[in-house]
Specification:
The protein is of the alpha+beta class and 357 residues long. It has ten helices and eleven strands. The mean pLDDT is 83.
Length: 357
Amino acid sequence: MTLGFLLFFLGFYSDFRAEEKTEFDVSEMIMHHIKDAHEWHLFGPEHGGTSIYLPVILVDNGIKTFSSSLFYHGKEVTIKQDSSETVISYFIGEGAASGYALFHEEIYKLKNGSLEFKNGHPHNIHPTDLSITKNVLSLFFGAGIILLMMFFTARFYKKNGAVAPKGIAKFFEPIIIMVRDDIAKANISHSKHEKYVPYLLTIFFFIWLNNMLGLVPFLPGGANLTGNISVTLFLSVCTLLVTLLSANMNYWKHIFWMPGIPVAMKFFMMPIELIGILTKPFALMIRLFANITAGHIIILALISIIFINKNIGWAGLSVPMALFISVLELLVAFLQAFLFAMLSSLFIGMAVEEPHH
């Protein structure tokens, strides 16, 4: 990790040297590192450095595909808002990307050859964007790693039977048993937990692995997948659907006609319980998104101290602090995966619980 952090520091310094003629913008730098993009930036200036340009797929009177390099190497337009000192810049596509513009990684359709802004936001048509962005490619990469890990683990037991694990199986068996016993079995009663172990294992390993890969934004080519609220929203919706589709009559009875309380209070509590169905996955979504994103922002902000003060001597303070937060992020990466799976199993357990007499 120390070597990786040093490489990140050197890469960051080279980026800064490449753009030292301009004022260093901390917020822009941080957002560039944590947000999704249509390119996989490796090193050098934000635009014009070394990058892997990803395919753009638009649905606009048919399906149109082209490389994102047609935006980043296209015409850059810079305008100044009349009502403020804010300077706005965007890229106009060339070649197959003609007629479209890229603004803050969002693609818009040009009108009269330009974007029309109001209060700093474009009001042009927004075509459906199905592009393979940096986060999408990272998702495929993480999913592929999980499939390979589980394939080799399963193949070991299929070949050798119930024996002492070796190799990759020796690493994953304790984790799988932990998810089965300490997460699924502990929260889903009456031997119903076995049905949900595959789902809980999937979300645990998916979140944990991508949290770990999410530490790589501090190195060239990293992606912040679990710091993307769209991803955490999808994971929380999956838990919501599994919970609702598994719910028994006892669960719905406690939602719509709570036993043991006066009838008048039942009508008062019913909307609160219905809202509670949605607040549970909402909490899952926000918790994962906020914790992962906050850790990245803190590390990048600490490193930025060097470039704000334009003195490498500040590295003696900011680098050790950022390195400490990075080590702490290793714990957070596991903890957030554990909490997401544990709370998901708790919600499922509440939905399938049998009535008590």
